[in-house]
Amino acid sequence: MDYNFDEIVDRENTCSVKYDLRKNIFNTPDVIPMWVADMDFRTPDFIMDALRRRLDHEILGYSYMPESCSEAITGWLFRQHGWETHPSWIGFSPGIVSALNLLVLAFTEPGDKIIVQPPVYFPFFSAIRNHGRVQVSNPLLYENNAYSMDFDDLELKIDSRTKMLLLCSPHNPTGNVWPLDVLEKLAEICLRNNIIIVSDEIHADLVYQPFRHIPTASISDEVAANTITCLSPSKTFNLAGLSTSYLVIRNPVLRRRYLEVLDHIHVGAGNIFGFVATEAAYTSGDKWLNQLLRYLKENIMLIDEFIQKHMPRIQVIRPQATYLVWLDCKDLGLNHNDLNELLIQNAGLGLSDGLLFGEEGRGFQRINAGCSRILLYEAMLKLGKAAKGFMSSQ
Q: What's the number of CA atoms in the CB half-sphere (13 Å) around residue 21?
């Protein structure tokens, strides 16, 4: 079956954060929303059909993750990533952000230090700050339009109070896919210093050839025992509203502690439809994902080629994964407020402000390519027109 990713689906007035909160975020509803990391594509038919079948049973009482769902997860992880896991290693979470907060509570104490690598997904910061932990920033190195890890800086910042590292892999917002040697070195440093790795791998399925996602916990048994992996079908299959996240925790001591905290806060029951959707996605989603990746890769190429041709002072950090594209706008010479005015008021685009991802994101913007090519091309034309007006005024 061929899927139609060119279809434009009207999402307004559906309580969509991405569309219906534009005025709240950008002070105007008249922007093309390309900020929130969900896609504008229809949820696949095999998922919708499974949800409709479940609706035929008209009792929606308390539920839990069935073993068939856990088995679908482990099957998917093996087929897509060559990672052998076991259903008993799976633990539910309402969302990845929820998981980050729960893990901080489970494995650290107030005053403990937690490492992040900005620019990075901004809920990492609040998961630390909101619980009285200390954020330690190990910024990524940005050279020649590419990002890498700064291990010298990392080692200098570790002390006896450093208990956890929050890893984003693949990386949001830069789109980096971390290679094996980088992950091995990072894992070795953490093992040597008794630092738990919490690896957010929600974008793991959205990787473009020739790059390949390597689950951090798959490196070795020793690394697996020190790593908690956060995953979800929500990005891959556009299910962010269904509470479909889960953790893979091989270490039984860490798993037991996490499940205790989950139970104490009473957020572990899950969502009936989230379980149904996850099982359907991971059972029948391989072909759909292959088609999606081809479409997204072409969308990213469109952004890259259009900006290179019409706005060469904006540098595109070509993502190796995710449908999110990180734009370096510093050569425009605009301050933070003027850059946002150019994009929102002049171009009519609602992007993610780079400063959300840390001070290292100043002068950057993140654009979501998970939409129809028709809408994406319209957005590029609007951006090009605004950039041309800006250049002519210089």
A: 8
End-to-end alpha-carbon separation of the chain, Å?
51
Strand residue runs (E) in 71-145: 90-93, 113-116, 134-137, 141-143
Residue carrying the six token digits 């929303």? 33
* Ramachandran area for residue 133 (φ above 0: left; ψ -120 to 50: alpha; else beta): beta
Q: What is the pTM of this model?
A: 0.97
Per-residue pLDDT tens digits of the chain, which is 394 residues long: 899 999 999 999 999 999 999 999 999 999 999 999 999 999 999 999 999 999 999 999 999 999 999 999 999 999 999 999 999 999 999 999 999 999 999 999 999 999 999 999 999 999 999 999 999 999 999 999 999 999 999 999 999 999 999 999 999 999 999 999 999 999 999 999 999 999 999 999 999 999 999 999 999 999 999 999 999 999 999 999 999 999 999 999 999 999 999 999 999 989 999 999 999 999 999 999 999 999 999 999 999 999 999 999 999 999 999 999 999 999 999 999 999 999 999 999 999 999 999 999 999 999 999 999 999 999 999 999 988 877 767 6
Query: Exposed, middle or buried, 378 (CB in 10 Å: 0-12/13-18/19+)?
Result: middle
3-state helix, strand, coil in the chain (%, to 5): 45, 15, 40
Domains, the chain, ordered by start: 17-42+287-388 (3.90.1150.10), 47-285 (3.40.640.10)
* Cα(181)–Cα(191) distance, integer angstroms: 15
Query: What strand order describes the sheet that includes 352-353?
Result: 315-317, 324-328, 364-368, 352-353
